[in-house]
Amino acid sequence: MDKATYLLKKQEQIESAVKYKREAMCFQCARVQNNCLCHMIKPFESKAHFVLLMHPMEAKKEKTGTGRISLACLKNSELIIGIDFTEDVAVNNLINDPKNYCMILYPGERSLNISSDDITPMKNLGGKRLVIFLIDGTWPCAKKMMRLSKNLHTLDRVSFTASHESVFVIKEQPAKYCLSTIESIQFFLSECDRRGIENLGNQQDNMLEVFKAMVDFQIKCALDTTLPSYRKSKDGYTKKSDRAKSKKWGTNRIVFKG
Q1: Residue 18 lies in a domain
Q2: pLDDT tens digits, one per residue of 109-151
């Protein structure tokens, strides 16, 4: 390689490094600072304490994960990362604490439907703190985490009847009742508020506002032909109504029944 060619390639490398340099991150919402959503977040305190059990793959996501945004919104919340929580000290300490009444927000035949069932057990806690565990991961990952985590099997399940489909239109959900993490928490709190367990005055709706802003930004990026992430489909972005529905999910496969 002659000197002129070497210098030309060197200049191209320098220009490429400048063009694609790593952007500064916001460590609260795990997004690049230019796309940070923290300015929209209005943290609030709920009576229930939320524990997000996050899959390691979900913890690494920077663009679509909603768990960290949920944590930023909820003052009464904490994060535990893992897959099998059977021997997890932090999880077991929460479950075994006599001051806590622990439930897991997960659908199933034996779950207490907060939208329609008798919720007396959740109202008469005898001074105990309501602790809601929630698995943050894809539905296949969530099912595996539930199956492996034997200590979660002992918890009472609580669920809800969603009045709307997920607004996470850029991502396909396996069933109509499947909501993202942040949507599930927001709707669950709304039902708790409606039925007298919480007294939030619609503070939880800010979670949905932040989430919709995130989705709108993702769609904008999907339509931007100048971005490396642009999807080279016919229209750059395919609307949910125009997509062919996947047949890989059956009702029995989505939820762990044990």
Answers
A1: no
A2: 889 999 999 999 899 999 999 999 999 988 889 999 999 999 9
Give the SS3 label for residue 184: helix
DSSP state of 74: B
Q: Which domain holds residue 136?
A: 27-245
Residues of the chain with pLDDT under 70: 1, 12-23, 27-33, 61-65, 224-252
What is the predicted pLDDT for the residue at 87?
97
Task: Note whether residue 66 is domain-resident.
Answer: yes
Q: How many CA atoms lie within 13 A of 171 on its CB side?
A: 20
**Domain membership flag for residue 108:** yes
Residues whose CB is less than 8 angstroms from the CB of residue 53 and which lie 6 or more positions away in sequence, other chains included:
80, 82, 85, 91, 133, 134, 135, 136, 145, 149
43-73 residues labelled b (16+ CB within 10 A) or e (exposed): ebebebbbbbbbbeebbeeeeebbbbbbbbb
Phi and psi at residue 189, to the nearest 5°:
-65, -35
Query: Would 54 be classed as within a structural domain?
Result: yes
Chain-centre distance of CA 70, in angstroms?
A: 7
Query: How many distinct structural domains can be found in the chain?
Result: 1
Q: What is the DSSP string of 4-46?
A: HHHHHHHHHHHHHHHHTPPPPEETTTTEEGGG--GGG---B--
What's the gap between Cα 8 and its chain centre? 46
